[in-house]
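tokens incoming
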């Protein structure tokens, strides 16, 4: 899928640019914690890395019927998506166990701490599942910022429009100092906030201190206010960040 069928087409259409991919470990398990702007995120990030990245996907993607259902299931399996049943009270435990298994096998596990796509391109509060996964596995957390995917594929758009898309990767975060404290909710909150802070510095996004799912529910109910922005995760002062810009196209010239 990556090298022969889908990958070459995506490279031509979206000409992905990257910064910091050398921060992804060459071997061993690691957590890639990314902002989530569009469905295409899960295809572009693995495309720019030499190693395979595995994401979780709702089991509905694998149980569809008819030609469309079979094609969707085949595509998801082909790109390495792992089905997980997100219904019921044990959904988070199933996701955690799946992530731990991937990391124990020495592979890369991709996760979106926000839990769902951003409804407006801003960065929302991270859920603590990524923190628990990091502490229980001992794996490093590599922050990732997807750039421009929400412009290529706004919510509701099935086929992304061709344009340059960026991936910015930060230095791995080590949380070994908290080992054995994965059941402390205050530690989990602090770790999740630190991860979101790192993503914010890479992406240049405005931070909103509520969950993205809450923001979506408010929008669906017709509320446009209530999403307080400003500052940074964990009460840190807002850093002086800039939106990453792509490098110039090969052969292009710049004018002062």
């Amino acid at each position: 899928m990556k090298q022969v069928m889908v990958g070459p087409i995506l490279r031509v259409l979206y000409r992905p640019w990257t910064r910091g991919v050398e921060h992804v470990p060459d071997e061993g398990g690691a957590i890639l914690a990314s902002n989530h702007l569009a469905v295409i995120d899960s295809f572009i990030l693995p495309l720019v890395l030499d190693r395979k990245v595995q994401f979780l996907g709702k089991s509905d993607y694998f149980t569809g019927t008819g030609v469309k259902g079979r094609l969707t299931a085949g595509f998801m399996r082909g790109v390495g998506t792992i089905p997980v049943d997100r219904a019921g009270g044990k959904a988070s435990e199933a996701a955690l166990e799946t992530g731990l298994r991937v990391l124990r096998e020495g592979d890369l596990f991709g996760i979106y701490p926000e839990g769902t796509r951003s409804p407006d391109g801003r960065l929302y509060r991270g859920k603590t599942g990524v923190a628990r996964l990091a502490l229980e596995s001992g794996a490093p957390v590599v922050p990732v910022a997807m750039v421009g995917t929400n412009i290529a594929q706004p919510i509701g758009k099935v086929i992304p429009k061709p344009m340059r898309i960026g991936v910015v990767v930060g230095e791995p975060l080590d949380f070994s100092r908290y080992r054995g404290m994965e059941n402390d909710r205050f530690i989990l909150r602090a770790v999740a906030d630190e991860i979101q802070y790192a993503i914010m510095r890479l992406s240049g996004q405005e931070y909103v201190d509520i969950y993205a799912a809450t923001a979506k529910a408010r929008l669906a109910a017709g509320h446009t206010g209530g999403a307080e922005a400003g500052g940074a995760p964990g009460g840190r002062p807002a850093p002086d960040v800039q939106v990453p810009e792509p490098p110039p196209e090969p052969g292009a010239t710049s004018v002062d």
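note: The first strand starts at residue 17 and ends at 19.
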